Amino acid sequence: MTTDPRLRAAVHELVAAIPVPAVAPPVRPLPSRRSWRPVLAAAAVVVLLLAVGLVRLPAAPSAPAAGPATLPRVFAGHSYLTATVSAAPAGAAIAIYGYGQGDLPFQTPQLIAVGVDGRTYREIDLASKRGRPVDAPLLKSPAAPVLLSPDGSRVAVADARGPVHDVAIVDLTTGRTRSYPVPAGSAMQLLAWSPDSMRLAYAAAPYRADSHGDPRVALAADGELTVLDLATGATSTVAGQRGVLDATFSPDGRTLAVQVGTELRLLTADGGSTVIPLPDGHRLGGPAAWSPDGSRLALFRVAAGSPSWAAGYWSPSGLAVLDLPTGASAPLDTNATTILGWQGADLLASNSDTIVAVPPTGPARVLARLQPGNDHWIDTVQLATARTGDLTVRDTVVDRGPWPWWLRVLTTGLLVLAGGVALMVLRRRRAR
Q: Rounded to whole angstroms, what are the CA distances from 149 to 156, 192, 320?
């Protein structure tokens, strides 16, 4: 090894000139912070998908569909997921039907409107509210008395909770309700719509506390026949017609047939009155009784042994048809007990859960069936009588409309929570 100091100095200088990269000191990773931004973003996406796809917004109200109305071959059963008329109106109805209640707790009656398309279903929520006593809202009770207009655009709603103060008209196209006052503290029974759906006949009498909500007790003795004009809001009382419990308008709207006790009377617009003889054990068949050609009236045959049927307490045992020109009546071959309207010469009727067409002679044929469910039974069936002449019957899908608000809120919350939990689990797995 050389000892030359100059050589050693040159070597040291050469080594020092060689660049050496600096080594950074080790950096400890900062602890990760959990961010809620991805969770909130996922929640927003879930809510958007829910609003757009799963829970549909109410459709804009539509005018009655052109062409023949459709009657579903099988009506939808009872469901708490049916949208209400006030929240999501679906237009004119071909039918309304109601569910009474069984023996299970917290059951609620429902009155359902079926659209003229045969597939849209909406609950007439005002009828359900007015069917519950004010002092016991959870008490089981049927929906309030109602009457569907001939064109299916309106439903008249009375009140089953006690003394009546108004009659409400629900517009099925807009969902709005208009109230028309009646004498305060009345017992009331809806009787019949005029063919143009612009006048409503009803009976009213002072309410009796011993009636237990049944208006027939007061109406049979003191009920006054009243006609409401929806165009003006004016009412007129028909003099000399106390105790009316059933009525029907003629096809031209100029005559009103009423049952007063055991008498059938034809009342004309000019104040005239004609008594039509009725066969023993028969009575007027309600608001849909008059045939479209004006020549026939459908009648109820009263079951033997019925209680005071003149006062409205009676049980029908069948149906008959009265020919007005001749005064002759003929029984019909059916066990149906509710008259719904006419289709040509055939009478449309129902017997709880079946709608039938009854020809003048021969057996009835089944048109449609209703489905009791959730321990409920069918207690009301009505048709839009002006649309029954050419209605079609077919199988249809069921459209109950948007879910109730409480279910939408609950479902949205659960989906947001589930989406957030799932995203947090995925983040933890990636961090391992």
A: 8, 9, 24
The amino acid occupying position 325 is P
Supply the pTM of this predicted model.
Answer: 0.80
Which uninterrupted H or E stretch holds 182? strand 177-193
Residue 424 to residue 43: CA distance in whole angstroms: 12
* The two three-digit tokens of residue 267, written as one number: 């009342």
Q: What domains can be seen in the chain, in order of their start residue?
A: 59-401 (2.120.10.30)
Task: Count Cβ atoms within 10 A of the Cβ of residue 47 and give its class: 0-12 exposed, 13-18 middle, 19 or more buried.
Answer: middle
Residue 168 φ/ψ, nearest 5 degrees: -100, 135
Q: What is the number of other CB atoms lying within 10 angstroms of the CB of residue 32? A: 8
For residue 401, give the 3-state DSSP assignment: coil
Q: Are 219 and 238 in contact (CB under 8 A)?
A: no
Please state, rounded to an integer, the average pLDDT across all residues of the chain.
81
Is residue 84 within 8 Å of 61, Cβ to Cβ?
no
Burial 263-278 (b: 16+ CB within 10 A, else e): ebbbbeeeeeeeeeeb
How does DSSP assign 118-147, residue by residue? S-BEEE-HHHHHTTS-TT-TTS--PPPPEE
Q: How many CB atoms lie within 10 A of CB 173?
A: 18
| Strand order across the beta sheet in which 263-268 lies | 244-249, 255-260, 263-268, 273-276
Q: Which residues of 1-11 are buried (b: 16+ CB within 10 A; e: fewer)?
A: eeeeeeeeeee
Burial of 232 (C-beta count, 10 Å sphere; 0-12/13-18/19+): exposed
pLDDT tens per residue, range 351-376: 878 999 999 999 999 999 998 655 56
Which contiguous run of DSSP H or E holds residue 229?
A: strand 224-229
